[in-house]
Amino acid sequence: MLHPERGRWRRAGLALLAAVLLAALAAGCGKKENKLAAEYDGGQITTKEFTAYKTFLKLANPSYASFVDEDSVQETILQQFIGTRILSERATDDAKKKGEDSANQTFKSFQDSLAATDAETKQSIDDLMKSGGLTDDLMKTYLKEQFVAQDDAEAKVTDADIQSYYDKNKDSFKYVTVRHILIGLTDKDGKTREKADALKLANEVKQKLDDGGDWTALAKQYSDDTGSSENGGLYEKADPSQWVEEFKNAAETLPLNQISDPVESTYGYHVMKVEARGTKTLDESKTSIRTLLGSQTIDKFMSDELPKLITKTYVPKPSPSPSASASASPSASAGASASASPSGSASAPPSASAPASPSESPVASK
């Protein structure tokens, strides 16, 4: 299931999409379409609608553009499209109203981001939408269907459900608050930095901090982590399981409130200060648990009930070969589209409703 994450349109750097969208546009040209893509109990999906939906996915997450037209995933994407539509139609009036409001807000954020980008990217996006038959109204419809399906599922999660999940999974709510300055093996200009030079500079940064230097100023000046360099290197109450192993281990074991020696990771050297460790309270975790349990309800519908409702599909079937792996599916895992920031929760559902953020934290697990 492709679930919405409301903030990502606002964070999106649309210029990053230009090359991806041009490639997607070229890949989608000249394909002959049949009249129907699928029939299901209560409705049908035309190939025109399905093409527009796949175009929406390409805009929603640029990483999908590389595989969304592959034969091996057509059935999966089509099923998710139908399932989302059925769930949105079944939803309560309250969920429909909330979903429509969220869709309108998200679409406006997209338009605002698009207005602020360069002419070449605007043209690339416009060309992609036109070639794929994706109108503004259709985009809002697809956004609304996803928000409505998720909101309706979340509304059915009870406080008892949330309490039970929290009690059984307390370890997954552990957090670390940490500051770090990364001296990367690739600098801000994309140039390679030798390990010895990175370590030397990291030691210099540590000395400046030991001498009373300001984290905010030094992170902004030196850190190659674009996800934290503008806020003093801070990741607050972050899930350590999202981090590369070396950074995670240091964050979980370093003494509190001490400036560390440089910690080596696959990205370079981190000068770190762990400010707190703990476990998020139930109140702090309710929203993420509700989202997770709502997503699980949707996934159960997709796997158990939906196949019985689809009567006929007219798209290529997935190959049984090992190459048709789960990773090809846009719903493969939360990690497929969760924020690369180490503060991104592992329980965050994948998003198909917003462009991905252009900056990924270099401490995020690969």
Automatic annotation (TrEMBL):
It comes from the Bacteria. Residues 312-366 are annotated as: Disordered. GO terms for molecular function: peptidyl-prolyl cis-trans isomerase activity. Residues 322-366 have a biased composition (Low complexity). Residues 173-276 form the PpiC domain. This is Peptidylprolyl isomerase. Signal peptide: none annotated. Keywords: Isomerase, Rotamase. PROSITE patterns: PPIC_PPIASE_2, PROKAR_LIPOPROTEIN. InterPro entries: PPIase_dom_sf, PPIase_PpiC, PrsA_foldase, Trigger_fact/SurA_dom_sf.
